[in-house]
Amino acid sequence: MSCWMPGCPALSMCRGLAALPITCLERAKDLKTRLGILLHKPELGHKTGSSSKLQLGSRRRDSSREVLEWRESFDQLLKSKSGVNAFHTFLKTEFSEENLDFWLACEDFKKTRSKTKLASKANRIFEEFVQSEAPREVNIDHETREITRKNLSGATSACFNEAQAKTRTLMEKDSYPRFLKSASYQDMTKQATGRGTSKRSHT
């Protein structure tokens, strides 16, 4: 119902709103929008926190699965950075970490592209690990040692292949089985399987 009487309060209110500057109305709308954003922020924060927890849980499951995969094969262990670190720590207790260090040095050596660097790296690896009475001499036979020495005259990325393969076989047949039976690895597998059991019991 419209109001035509001169003193009508509704007519005065309409005139008052019409007299307000447009900027005031825009500011009011802007304020309403900001209040709406602030009210929704806690909800957004909650969602972000949940996402972080899911990612952390996923990483834990991945690491647990990785630990259990180390016992599947020696290759699985060597593919894992944390597996190599754990194996290296174990080898230190047996004073035989030079075998793994030599294997890793050979892997790095194969990635070298510069011929100059290839030759200098080859000599350094040979002097540290392969030659007789080297500071960190690996356990390889005399024939393999001599073949490797001859390979140095024309160093290629393959000059340590035979010595590396012999060292790898030695670790796989000797040190690796003892690592799997070690107290340190047994503790890691218990923690890994414990996480899996705990996860299943809550689902």
Automatic annotation (TrEMBL):
Keyword annotations: GTPase activation, Lipoprotein, Membrane, Palmitate, Phosphoprotein, Signal, Signal transduction inhibitor
Signal peptide region: 1-19
Localisation: Membrane
Pfam family, one: RGS
Superkingdom, taxonomy of origin: Eukaryota
Name recorded for this polypeptide: Regulator of G-protein signaling 16
A GO term for molecular function: GTPase activator activity
Domain (RGS): residue spans on this chain: 73-189
GO CC annotation terms, alphabetical: membrane
Annotated GO biological process: negative regulation of signal transduction
SMART domains: RGS
Amino acid composition bias (Polar residues), ranges on this chain: 183-196
Gene assigned in the entry: Rgs16
Organism: Callaeas wilsoni
Function summary: Regulates G protein-coupled receptor signaling cascades. Inhibits signal transduction by increasing the GTPase activity of G protein alpha subunits, thereby driving them into their inactive GDP-bound form. Plays an important role in the phototransduction cascade by regulating the lifetime and effective concentration of activated transducin alpha. May regulate extra and intracellular mitogenic signals.
Bilayer topology annotation: Lipid-anchor
